[in-house]
Amino acid sequence: MLESISCQYEDVRTLLLERGEEGRLYDLDEETLGAMVMFLQRFKEATKALEASKTPTLHLTAVWFDRLKRHLQPSSTDNLTFSSLKEKCLRILLEKYEIHLLHKLAMFLHPKLKSLKLLADEHEVGTVHNKVRRLVKGERGKNKTKRKLFGEKLRRRTASTLRSSVA
């Protein structure tokens, strides 16, 4: 919606001037509006990427979390308003969102993200690797059990089939 207002700023300003309602644009100049649109654009991109319904997105959670954290870092070109806005948004982002082990495992399983470069330190990377090892080891144990059970059932069927065909 801000994009459409930004594109039509001059038309809106002219219309408000004709109506004598120019006070509605009191603290809103075109430059500030454009900067706000650019600021919010990153959030729009994150939302679109993470709400996809036909592609996996779990591995993207940490990627977009990192991108948004970097986006919210104060810049030397920011005015006081945007600087405080970024500070507050960053505080909220860090309070409300947490990257769980499941997100990190999804990153590890994605071919482009398997190096886990987005993780803060080697300890986090080691934690993910250890969890993957435990999961794989657990699956191997389950598969051995399944093979034993399957082999036993197969032997019973084969023996009973042989008995019935001999008799």
Structure, explained:
- Helix 6 (101-109) packs across helix 7.
- The protein has helices at residues 2-7, 9-19, 30-50, 60-71, 80-96, 101-109, 122-166.
- The termini are far apart.
- Among the domains are: 1-50, no CATH class; 120-167.
- It is mostly helical and 167 residues long.
- InterPro entries: RNaseH-like_sf (IPR012337).
Main sheet specs = none
What Rg, in angstroms, do the CA atoms define?
29 Å
**Helix content range of the residues, please?**
over 70%
Query: What is the SS-derived class?
Result: mainly alpha
How would the global form be characterised? elongated
The helix/strand series, from N terminus to C terminus, equals HHHHHHH
Content of β-strand: under 5%
Q: Unreliable runs, pLDDT <50, ≥5 residues?
A: none
Instruction: Give the total of beta strands.
Output: 0
In DSSP terms (H or I, runs of 4 or more residues), the helix count works out at 7
Overall mean confidence score, pLDDT:
82
Task: List the SSEs and their pairings.
Blueprint: H1 2-7, H2 9-19, H3 30-50, H4 60-71, H5 80-96, H6 101-109, H7 122-166
Helix pairs in contact: 3-4, 4-5, 6-7
Could you name the key traits of this structure?
RNaseH-like_sf; mainly alpha; 167 residues
Summed up, what is this model?
The protein has 167 residues and is an all-alpha fold.
